[in-house]
Inverse folding.
């Protein structure tokens, strides 16, 4: 899901594998158990600038390993972290962020709001051009926002709440007019798109099936020029980028690995300059290697167990629609053991999606008091299932639903994530211990997408029971929480029901 990575324009430094924060929660009306974790990002000890290993002789190429391809280069429907990585480099935003999540000028150099908070005025950077040479103007900003608002584009609809329309006042001034005051306007993560390209794309297709093809046209520091599915993504530096710090490399080559352990070995050998998605089990090896250092810091990231409790044309097990059933499951998971075993101690149990220590304002995180906090108590889970009417009437070790059918649930873990697989094995055992039949499978992300965003005709029909995944959220907690609202069903949501 949405997981932006912060980049420095400077030369890559030596490896800094991340020590990660692990949150976990239950939102009774939406999902059952959230199991936290995060991304791992390592930087190698040398830049691979050997021309013989570069797509173009004499070019300085940054080689980055990752374990999952971008699912779609179309920013309206892509979901993989790798897709967001590409967009963050290829496109720009009105407002950026500093390393401590404070707003900084992006395509807008300044902004102000009306006294009633309903009109935001952005003053745009002069002399910016699109990567195809066309001039960037306020018309592009107005087009981008109106394209989203008028067509309810799923990936960004939660970010445009209360926005009525955007109006280009002149080439370098745009007004965004709202029905109500909008406090989070400058935190809206919306890439600005070229009107001369996207006005030719049917909005219905753009929000459902349109596949963006390279070269992507943006205003960012790099441009995506070549994609080979399952192999690599190649980006080239934008020589006309407006930023004060120009790209320090000529190209970035994102290399896809099927095996994260192999990727780690290539990082150690110097074949890669950086690696993204290093398994926690590999941290000790990196820490003990010359030229590598581990630095502990908190992330906004969590891992979660998503449950299909959609009440429409769902193909998930209907027991998951019962909030009492979902609440019982939350007592059956030992979050501390997940942190210790799945993440090799590089994570912590959490209590909400707002991870402590990761936000500018500490008030963003709320710690539930002990009397309402979920802990590991399988006996309580069994008691709650009994009280809700899910009993094992024939003594075969499997509880039945209220129609008398044995409860069988599918649980999926990601093939790209060893941590997800270990967590899936643990949850399978815990859920079986409380009387549920679990069909556990390791699946790749492509199957995830096809099943989560599945349709029968025009009807949304998700075809899963439970899966494990992760998310970073947004810099503004309001934007993160918006993804959990009913209005986001079939749009961009967590976890997609």
């Amino acid at each position: 899901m949405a997981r932006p990575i912060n980049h420095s324009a400077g030369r890559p430094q030596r490896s800094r594998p991340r020590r990660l924060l692990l949150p976990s929660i239950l939102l009774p009306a939406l999902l059952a158990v959230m199991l936290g974790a995060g991304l791992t990002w390592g930087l190698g000890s040398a830049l691979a600038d050997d021309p013989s290993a570069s797509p173009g002789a004499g070019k300085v190429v940054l080689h980055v390993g990752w374990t999952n391809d971008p699912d779609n280069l179309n920013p309206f429907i892509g979901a993989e972290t790798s897709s967001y990585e590409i967009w963050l480099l290829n496109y720009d935003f009105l407002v950026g962020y500093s390393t401590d999540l404070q707003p900084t000028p992006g395509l807008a150099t300044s902004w102000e709001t009306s006294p009633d908070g309903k009109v935001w005025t952005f003053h745009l950077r002069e002399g910016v051009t699109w990567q195809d040479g066309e001039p960037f103007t306020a018309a592009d900003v107005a087009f981008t926002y109106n394209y989203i608002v008028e067509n309810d584009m799923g990936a960004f609809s939660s970010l445009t709440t209360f926005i009525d329309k955007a109006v280009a006042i002149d080439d370098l001034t745009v007004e965004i007019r709202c029905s109500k005051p909008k406090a989070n306007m400058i935190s809206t993560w919306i890439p600005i798109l070229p009107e001369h390209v996207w006005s030719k794309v049917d909005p219905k297709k753009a929000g459902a099936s349109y596949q963006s093809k390279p070269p992507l046209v943006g205003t960012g520091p790099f441009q995506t020029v070549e994609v080979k599915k399952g192999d690599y993504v190649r980006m080239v530096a934008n020589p006309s980028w407006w930023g004060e710090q120009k790209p320090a490399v000529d190209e970035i080559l994102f290399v896809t690995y099927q095996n994260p352990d192999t990727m780690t070995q290539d990082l150690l050998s110097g074949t890669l300059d950086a690696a993204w998605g290093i398994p926690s089990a590999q941290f000790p090896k990196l820490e003990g290697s010359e030229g590598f250092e581990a630095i502990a810091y908190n992330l906004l990231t969590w891992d979660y167990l998503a449950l299909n409790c959609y009440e429409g044309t769902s193909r998930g097990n209907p027991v998951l629609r019962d909030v009492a059933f979902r609440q019982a499951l939350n007592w059956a998971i030992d979050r501390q053991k997940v942190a210790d075993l799945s993440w090799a101690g590089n994570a912590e149990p959490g209590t909400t999606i707002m991870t402590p220590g990761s936000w500018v304002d500490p008030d963003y995180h709320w710690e539930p008091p002990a009397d309402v906090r979920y802990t590991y108590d399988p006996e309580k889970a069994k008691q709650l299932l009994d009280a809700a009417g899910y009993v094992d009437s024939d003594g075969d070790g499997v509880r039945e639903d209220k129609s008398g059918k044995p409860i069988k649930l599918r649980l999926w873990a990601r093939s790209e994530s060893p941590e997800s697989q270990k967590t899936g094995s643990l949850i399978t055992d815990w859920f079986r211990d409380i009387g549920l039949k679990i069909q556990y499978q390791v699946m790749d992300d492509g199957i995830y997408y096809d099943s989560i965003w599945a349709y029968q005709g025009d009807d949304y029909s998700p075809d899963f029971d439970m899966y494990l995944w992760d998310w970073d959220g947004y810099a503004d907690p309001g934007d993160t929480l918006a993804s959990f609202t009913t209005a986001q069903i079939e749009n961009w949501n967590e976890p997609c029901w």
